[in-house]
Amino acid sequence: MAFLRKHGLWIVVVVALLVLRSQRGGFSPEELDAHCQQLMEEGKSAEALAWSREATDDDLRTIYEYDNDRTLEIIEEIYKLGAAKVTAVDIDVDPDFGETTDILIVTLPENPTQRADLLQYESQLAQWTGVGGTSDRGQKYLMLWWD
């Protein structure tokens, strides 16, 4: 969120175009992976499960507008589906509130069934948010975006 505020509306447009173009087969898996890698390297990021478990009632660690418990459930569910790693990116830090993000980057496993399960999860999220719906094209990463 801090990244979005800092860089303005253009990042939302770029992400939307990335998703739209990926749905149409326009971006290569390497380009999509490079974008995810860039998100993990810019701004504050952390392994999502450990990050979420640092939460307290006075120092939140949340995805989107969910509470600490729901955030932890979401991350645990993604790992149960087979994610090799889940990284919270673009973490917004508010000293009076805690930390929050709208984006998780999932490192996809090699197992085809687990990959399919994670892509199905992303597809369901995409129906809710109106953005996404990525197919398996051999990419390393999957971006989950709540916004």
Description of the structure:
- With 147 residues, this protein is α+β, with helices and mostly antiparallel strands.
- It has one domain (2-145).
- The protein is 48% helix and 19% strand.
- The chain is built from 6 helices and 7 strands; from the N terminus they run H-H-H-E-H-E-H-E-E-E-E-H-E.
- The strands form 2 sheets. A 4-stranded antiparallel β-sheet has the order 1-3-6-7, with helices on both faces. Strands 2-5-4 form a 3-stranded mixed β-sheet.
- Strand 4 (92-94) and strand 5 form a beta hairpin.
- The radius of gyration is 15 Å and the shape is globular.
- The mean pLDDT is 87.
Short structural summary:
With 147 residues, the chain is of the alpha+beta class. The chain contains six helices and seven strands, in the order αααβαβαββββαβ. The mean pLDDT is 87.
